[in-house]
Each structure stands twice: as C-alpha cells, then as structure tokens.
Amino acid sequence: MTALLFRDLKLAVRAGGGAMIGVLFFMTVVAVIPFGVGPDLNLLARIGPAILWIGALLAALLGLDRLFQAEREDGSLDLILMQETPLVLTVLVKCLAHWLATGLPLVVASPLLALFMNMDAAAMAATMLTLLVGTPAITFIGAAGAAVAVALPRGGLLVSILVLPLAIPVLIFGVSAVYAAVQEPAPFLPPFLFLTALTLVFAVIGPVAAAAALRASTD
Amino acid sequence: MSEQSLAIRKFSDLANPTRFLALSAIVWPWMAAITALFFAVGLYLCFMSVGDYQQGETVRIMYVHVPAAWLSMMCYSVMAASALGTLVWRHPLADVSAKTAAPIGACFTFIALITGSLWGKPMWGTWWVWDARLTSVFVLFLMYLGLIALNRAVDDPARAAKVSAILILVGFVNIPIIKFSVEWWNTLHQPASVIRLDGPTIDPEFLWPLLVMAIAFTLLFFTLHILAMRNEILRRRVATLRRLAARSAGYGEASR
After folding, report:
1. Of A106, B142, B211, B230, which is most buried, counting CB atoms within 10 Å of its CB?
2. Looking at this predicted complex, what is its ipTM?
3. What single DSSP character describes residue B193?
4. What is the number of structural domains in chain A?
C-alpha cells in the first residue's frame, strides 16, 4: 500500500507538468476574478474566501478524471483489480495520493492568493484550515465520479458535471466556516465540524462506490 | 413467510420481459383511463375551489406545482430502488426502469421549477430567489441531467446500467446532505405544510384538490413509466434483431 502511495505520488509529480498544473489553474482562476468584479479591495476582501473556495473546488476537479484513466490505459488497473487486498482500500490509498499531489499544494498556495484578495490574517488562517479539511472530501466523492467515467473516451467533462452537485455541501460549509471565523456573532465550530463530518462520510461513500464502479466497468 | 416468498416469486416473474410486456399491455390502458379520470376530477375541483384571500387566483398554480415537486423526489426514489434492484438482485428490468425514470423525473422537476417561478413572480415579486428549497430542487434537476448524460455516454446498456446505478445510489445518499446544507445556507421558502406530525395546516378547501391532483400526477408518472419501459424493451429488441440480421447477412456474404 505504501508502495502504491509512493508510486502514485511520483507519477503525479513527474508526469506531464505534474501537480503544479492544478495550482497554476487555481492561481489563474483566482487572478481572473478581479478582472471580472473590479479591483475594489474591500469587495475582494469580502468575497475572497468564497473565491478561493470555488477556485480550489474547480482545481481539485481538474485532475480527477486522470485518477483511474492512466491505469486503465496502461493496463495496471487490471492488476490492481486482481490483487488480494480489498479494492476499497486500494482506492482509498489512491485517493490519498491524489490529494497529496493535487489537494495539498492548493492548501499551501491559498495564503499567497489570500494576500492578493486583501484578506486579513484570521480569514487567511480559516481559509487554509477549511481547505485542508475540506479538499479531501472533494477528492473522495470525485473518485466515485472518476471511476464511473473511467471507461469513457471523454470522461473529464462528465466527471465535473456529475461531481459538482455532490460537492455543493462541502463548498457551503467550507465558506460558511470561513465567514463564521471572520464575522463576530456566528460561531466557527459548528460549520467546521460539519465540514469534517462531510469529509469522513465521503471517505466512506466515495471509495466504496468507486470500487464498485471499477469492478462494473471491467467485467 | 409463504406470502413473502409468493410476492418475491411474483416480482421475479416480471423479470421476463415478454411477461412484463404482456402484463403491461393489459394494465396500461386501465391506468391511463384512471389517470384521466383523476385529472378530470382534480382539475374540476381546482377550478371550483375559491381563490385564496391573499393570493387570489394564482393559488391554483399550487395544484400543479406541489404535486410536480413531490413527484420529482418520488421519481428519484423509484430510481434508487431500481438501482438497488440492478446491483443487488440483478433484476433485468430494474435497469430499464432506472433508465426510463430519469427523463420523466427530470420533466417533473422542470415543471416544478417553471411553475414555481411563475408563482414566485406575483407572490415574491421575482422569478427566482436563491432560497434553500428552490436551490435544492435545482440541484436535483442538474443531477437528473447528469445521470441522463452518463447513461447516454456509455454504449453497452448492461454496463451503463451498473455505473449509473452506483451513481444514483451515491446521489440518493447525498440528497439529504445537500438539502440540509442548503437549508443551513439560506432559507426563505415556507416550511412543509401538508405532511406534518400535527396534521396538515392547509385549509381543507385547498387540501382536497391538492390531494386528488397529487394522486393524478402519481398515476400519470406510473403510466408514463410503464409505457417508457415498454418502449425501451422494444428498442433493445429491435437493436438485438438488427445486430442478428447484420451478422447473418455477413455470413451470407461470406458463404457466397
């Protein structure tokens, strides 16, 4: 399992532009927003957390369709399906590797972008924390979508369409936790705990559904 | 115990598409007739009932809007049950049922959204508000469209059935979460007023037409669903026959 983790990590970092593509996309999306809404720093500070979250959501979806597709193309997916360890566990490890390679860089990059958005230190820390907790949920639920679309020739767009509605709760609780941390009356903990719970729930549903879909797509 | 095994045997009898076609051929004209009857009574009641003292005539939109919204959720439940049937019992008609229910459900959801928008304009003064219920119904609509797109994207019907069944179930688990989170996000719509523990708060004047219309809509859904399933079975038969014909034609060429 650790071997698989490191293999996936190495592949993600070294192959085809690597993990930086996701971060680059994230930065581009966030950089485009001020051109749309205007360079008003107060407005940007107010909508900044939401923009960072939406950018991270889109960037996390970007690489998802490759999660199982590369394995399918070179045939190693069949080997993964045949091995003795439960497929759910393998999928979970692959999700972890995918998150380490694409999700974690987004979290690391978020304070820098928060500076661009004129957010204060509390909002910056809250955004980073919620992204750290929330992005795995997107990866887990996205794995189910990626596994469903693995056999399709152009599955990438379909994965996004299928996964985005399911990721709405993550976005809602992530953003409301950040706003709760910044604005005084609302408590930070309830939405944050809901976000954590969502990640844990998706960590169960996603790999199970993805494993079932992978089995269904090969036989 | 014996009754249960009997029921299962009956249900699995339906697994034979020919038997299903024969049975549904007998059933559907009756269902269509009963549906028409309920619609006639329901529409009569709708237009006989007095308008609301606040909302005036526009309250009659409710008799279409609310049943359509109920059905949009019931249809997804039917799809989830069919998805379970596909994955657990491998019922050969379950995937036909799930596949054909999706467009019908999307239609009802669309009707609910459109009528809600038409009702919202005179009542709230705007076509659309980002209110919790409207938003979650809209998300449901997007999920229907995504499922239809997925089913269209996979060529082989057996494989399409399995992957969409998995996704239907994932969505089914997610719908309560989405609904809850959207309510956390923002709420303006009135709370549920018909199905409540302490009895309906809605006046009987409106309740009776509403219930009759709800039954009529449900019957309409099942009639359309049976017809769509018949169409899908026949379509698959035609596809198989074409394939067989093409193959035998190929053999004929080769032997000559």
Report:
1. A106
2. 0.77
3. -
4. 1
